[in-house]
């Protein structure tokens, strides 16, 4: 009989142990879930940008300037970072990144981030942070455009020999004017040839090539190559002037001028009727 109370006591202790372990496991799981939710919330909060975002458009291969203006000079250390990968770019006036294309241009209240030779991979949101109290943040979204050029009339343009030729190279999706536009004919640059009657003029959005009087030698494949945009092409066909009418040298009568036709018609008419007119000797015989 004594064995029964001892057995019951052991069973109760086992039950209490199992119950306590389950409770501890539930508490631990609840704590882990709270930490996970908190972390997720923090990550989500980091992606949320509070405040205005300034837009900057730059052209691929050019220099992008991202502004950052502070209200109080000397308020704290200024840093630049890219939001997407939390990449620290600059600290104060020094470049922290191994990519030396990132440079800070500082003047009193301006801490401009300059990115040289930008590419499409540089697109994104950048943060300028001032370690003041409270912390100040400025955001800039950089967009990259890839410019290209067109020549109206392409791919084939026909021009009559002796008439004027005007080719215009127009830049599209460009954020800035080109430094130069080179023109090529059949692969040969013609900007500095000083060919008589040929003129190249640089415009704000491209370039214009003009030929006063076209010759057969002006035909061929033309290329305009701006300094900051993809090139464009056009094939120019010079239609040679027609040969002199064959009738001018005894050929087809259909090509004769109106005056010559009238004169020939009159001669033919007189010849046709002359045989009907009696001669004076027949009218007055001797």
Automatic annotation (TrEMBL):
PANTHER family: DEFECTIVE PROBOSCIS EXTENSION RESPONSE 19, ISOFORM A, DEFECTIVE PROBOSCIS EXTENSION RESPONSE DPR -RELATED. Keywords: Signal. InterPro entries: Ig-like_dom, Ig-like_dom_sf, Ig-like_fold, Ig_sub, Ig_sub2, Ig_V-set, Zig-8. GO terms for cellular component: neuron projection membrane. It comes from Apis mellifera. Residues 1-23 form the signal peptide. Residues 46-145, 152-235 form the Ig-like domain. The gene is LOC726106. This is Zwei Ig domain protein zig-8 isoform X2.
């Amino acid at each position: 009989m004594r064995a029964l109370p001892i057995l019951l006591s052991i069973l109760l202790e086992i039950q209490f142990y199992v119950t306590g372990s389950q409770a501890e496991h539930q508490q631990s799981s609840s704590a882990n879930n709270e930490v996970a939710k908190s972390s997720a919330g923090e990550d989500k909060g980091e992606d949320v940008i509070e405040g205005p975002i300034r837009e900057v458009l730059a052209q691929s291969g050019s220099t992008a300037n991202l502004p950052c203006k502070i209200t109080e000079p000397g308020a704290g250390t200024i840093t630049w970072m890219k939001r997407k990968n939390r990449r620290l770019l600059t600290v104060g006036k020094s470049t922290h990144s191994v990519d030396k294309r990132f440079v800070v241009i500082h003047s009193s209240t301006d801490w401009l981030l300059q990115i040289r030779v930008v590419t499409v991979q540089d697109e994104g949101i950048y943060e300028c942070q001032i370690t003041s109290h409270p912390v100040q943040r400025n955001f800039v979204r950089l967009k990259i455009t890839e410019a290209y050029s067109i020549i109206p009339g392409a791919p084939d343009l026909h021009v009559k020999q002796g008439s004027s030729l005007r080719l215009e190279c127009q830049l599209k999706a460009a954020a800035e004017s080109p430094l130069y536009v080179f023109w090529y004919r059949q692969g040969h640059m013609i900007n500095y040839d000083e060919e008589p009657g040929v003129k190249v003029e640089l415009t704000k959005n491209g370039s214009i090539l003009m030929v006063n009087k076209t010759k057969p030698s002006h035909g061929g494949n033309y290329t305009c190559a701006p300094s900051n945009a993809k090139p464009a092409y056009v094939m120019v066909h010079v239609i040679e002037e027609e040969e002199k009418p064959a009738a001018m040298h005894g050929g087809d009568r259909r090509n004769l001028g109106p005056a010559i036709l009238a004169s020939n018609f009159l001669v033919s008419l007189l010849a046709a009727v002359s045989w009907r007119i009696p001669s004076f000797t027949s009218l007055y015989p001797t």
